[in-house]
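Archive entry: two folds, one per protein. Generate the first.
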Amino acid sequence: MDAIASILRHEDYRIVRQEMVAGQDHPTTRVVVDMTIRGVTVMAIPFDVVQDRGGRWFVTNVDLEKVMAGG
């Protein structure tokens, strides 16, 4: 988890869009985000998230390869 957190450390972000993901066991939302990481904007990073009954959001999938490649 620490390694993932260090990859996703950013200076700024902007949510571009949200959409439902079909075919999942639980209602899943894909949040597409532009992130500024070490001064470079990486465009359209998809995060799949699920909300629990308490209202907390959990990331179930993120395209780390795209983040590490810088877009």
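Generate the second and append.
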Amino acid sequence: MYLMDNMVMKKPVVITICNRKGGTGKTSVAINLAAYLSRLGKKVLLIDLDPQANATSGLGVTNNQNGIYEVLSQKISLTDSMVATRGNLWLSPSSENLAGADVEIVDVENRESILSRILNSFIQNDNPDIDFILIDTAPSLSLITINSLVAADKVLIPVQAEYFALEGLGQLCKTIDLVKTNLQPNLNILGAVVTMYDARSKLSLEVWQELYRHFPHPIFRTVIPRNVRLAEAPSYGQTILEYAPHSKGARAFRRLTKEFLSLNK
């Protein structure tokens, strides 16, 4: 809880994990980063803002009928949507109902800022003891995704180690710049993290080098490898920390989390 008398209110850092391209390992980054932050003693809320609900199922949550869609629809509070999953990690789950949210909020005043207002109310009125709020988004630049950017302090961009993955990166950065200019002046890009990296592949190395040459924002030194265990874990409703804690993928996420924390002191 916050001590309000002689202390500055502690505010969670809100980070949107975003890429308009599918198959970049975005949800894997979201759930595994959240799990390792929790393991290191940080209190984390993960908001699943993707109608596919992969982060929800990946954390083993099946009762997801009172989740982020109901929050956006003002049927329940964000606090009431939160499911305790493991350790210091909570989830505001998604469901297929979220697919229609774009249409439902299109006529709402200040529609791009709905999630931002919800988070501000949550922080100011509910006094959550949370260090990080991570938002997993759909692979699109929908109105709901724009809401996630307006609500965020920083954006983390997973980039698959393939050439096609680089094509939409410039447009995503332009969109983030537009949001920063017009809607959220404090929004910044935390950095890009390379996913599905194959150390045996010349292509993976070339994509990583191209990213360093042309991406004008920070790039995490840690890369997330292609790893069978990482691919298998969500089907068991587990993070890599639980499913295969000694695997190559688990070691990579442990390093990524420490690097992430060094950038968010």
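Annotation attached to the second fold: DSSP finds 13 helices and seven strands in the chain. The first strand starts at residue 13 and ends at 17.
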